[in-house]
Queue: 2 jobs
Job 1
Amino acid sequence: MKQSTINISTLPSEIINIVQGKAFIYPYAIDAQEVLGNPASIVFCNKQFPSKETMSKIAIEENTPMTAFVLHKQNNIFDIEFYTPSGDTFSLCGHATIIASHFISEQYSFEEVIFLREGLPYQLSTTNIKANNTHQFTLVTMPAFMPKSLAIHDASVYTNCLGIANNQVEAIYQCEELQDIIVVVSNAEILRNVEPNFPQLSTVLANNNIRGLFITALSSLPEIDYEVRIFAPHFDIDEDISCGSANCSLLPLWNKLLNAPNNKEFKILCPYNFSTNKMGGIEIGHFNAENNTINIGGMIGK
């Protein structure tokens, strides 16, 4: 468990502890590159959440890709709130939920942990599994959202920010439930070489009330099914290292595009910052068409 550098004694009495961990690490190199995992700060609260202003300030000071505040309700049920490095509230974060579940499991010995978030019309169910003596694996079950197709020329405002031509784009989709835009490109090489205009993209996403812009492609690596890069510069996350909730729409989409069987296991790579010989994260996911859910999981590190 990595402790936060914030002095707990200077915080309100609602704060018990702040810890940091990583989700979607991988013990082996992928394509000869180290896999980083995505960090999050987990703030354990007592009796009630602090004010939104206080939570925003803590998230800004933590400056991790996501800060999750958790509050024990009863048994294995916890409330959860998400804040970005810019101090904004966030609707849903898979990797922070997974990390929170891992630390709760360590503290309370719960194998299964359920999270509730105000305004979220569904619960987030997590399961903690000891992969071996060294590695822990945690997965979260979330709703699946089939994205709707957009005309490529109508979505040029997004592809222009990515610097890619229309002939490199296979299709564009929008997940209306989470307000995400998905750009499917012809191959992973295009995906890995994209260099977004982040100031322009930040303005476009904010003006259109879009949570994140995803670019995805089938992987050229034999052990990986598809790859995805995630951009949300308007939340001070130019590129997310490895995003779990993106797969609420990506898993059902790729399942449909590949005509895959129900509950097929997908291995997903986020090749964040691959030019420095580092990858973002490895995620394992399934889409269950019968109950319209996905689960996404990965190894936990500290």
Job 2
Amino acid sequence: MVQYTMYIEKDTFVHRLDPRTKLLWLVCVFIWSMTFNHPLWTLMILFVVLVFGFASKTLGRFKYFWYGLLSLFLMCSLMWPFFKRGYTVLMYFGPLPLYYESVWYGLAVGIRLIAMVLAGIITFATTRVEDLLAALCKLRFPYSMAFGVSTIFRFIPTMMGDGMLIIAAQEARGVNLRGGSIWEKAKNSVPIMAPLLVTTLRRTGELAMAVEARAFRAKTERTDLYVPRLEAKDVAVMIMAIALTLIFLYLRLQGYGAILPKEM
């Protein structure tokens, strides 16, 4: 069966970083994004993520994500202004007031989520699942937990690939999956979801038998083919990420980067 993975083989500075460095960078991006709620400041965070992404040379391989990210941004920008109360009324939609600060907050949330999703895509597009497992073990995670986390990220792209194969197979049989109303599309999704569920359950059973056959619960100390080692560039990136995190937190505590100071 065809296998899919998010990892893209490249020889870039980002690919050569230690997996623990990239995990720390990912956590820092999440903290940066949640620190500010002004769109100009969150746009700065997005710019940093894009620079990292262009340096990894992987963004061009995930063009199909851009439509989803655009939809996410539009949804946040249009819906959040009606759930947050600002100070300056911009206009009224019937009985609902629309505040100037709330509009800016909605834009900030949309940009924030794009930055966080992109950071995750870049991290897993530049890190092998085996390297991620080794890094989690180095961080003293229990092996069973590290294996479970790495397995999730290994099989999510595989499920997506299985879904694409099932869609192609059903369309070849004459099932109309793209036309009709939204209710018809929901009804026509059954021929996709049912075989995808069966395939996933079968794969889960095969995985369980495979790991048991390889003495997954053996108590002997495990050895690794790949042992991650921190280098000078990893230390430099870690220091920079932590320093930026402290600076951003300090700026937020001083009142910068917040269109709604009482909100995240």
